[in-house]
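haha ok so turns out i had the wrong file open the whole time. this is the CORRECT one, sorry everyone. sequence first:
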Amino acid sequence: MSFTVYPALDIREGRVVRLLQGDYAQQTTYGDDPLPRAQAFADAGATWMHLVDLDAARAGGYTLAPLLSAIACQTGLKVQTGGGVRSRDDVARILDAGATRVVVGSVSVRAPETVIGWLGEFGPERLTIALDARQADDGRWLLPVHGWTETAEDTLDVLATRYAQAGMTHLLCTDIARDGMLSGPNIGLYQHLASLLPGVAVQASGGVRSAADVAEAKAVGCGGAILGKALLEGRMTLPEALAC
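then structure:
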């Protein structure tokens, strides 16, 4: 399985930001220049990027279509993007705006039958199923929903297996406890998912802080890693990560 490095930009009100563990009240702003940053990713050798619409993630209704189109047309990057995807028409509109792959998050937990239908309609290469997880005291990985305030009935293992059986090929899994913390990715979690889901490209997300973390994610069988805060803060360079 090939390994993909996804430099990431989270956008809120037109600005490049990062949230701490998904908390909108704990935001750091890095500038209002997402397109030049995307071009810099391409110039550094990236072929993909990860783009998140934080406004839509909260309120629904993807707002980044103009930026997405500009990135796709001007940089040559393939863009994996999401935020606020609630319906089949949302998926279609984001693909039409220039996305190579649409990230489907909370609806993947709330309405798996619907999303399995989208896998059949659009094809598994056009969708990334995103499952944000938090480990319970008994070791199970639970799936918080509604702004991480409630917990879904299915565990991560159950739902991820169900999607894999339905044809999923791309899974983005964020360990909520490590999101934005620069504490290193949960390698044990990703090693578990890679063995549980052979043939699925698992994307490590949350806590990646160095090129060594990227290399470790690759070594345990991940199909990719999302690079956010560490890149924005200069803790590693994109060429260092790509060299892994």
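The first strand starts at residue 4 and ends at 12.
again sry for the mixup
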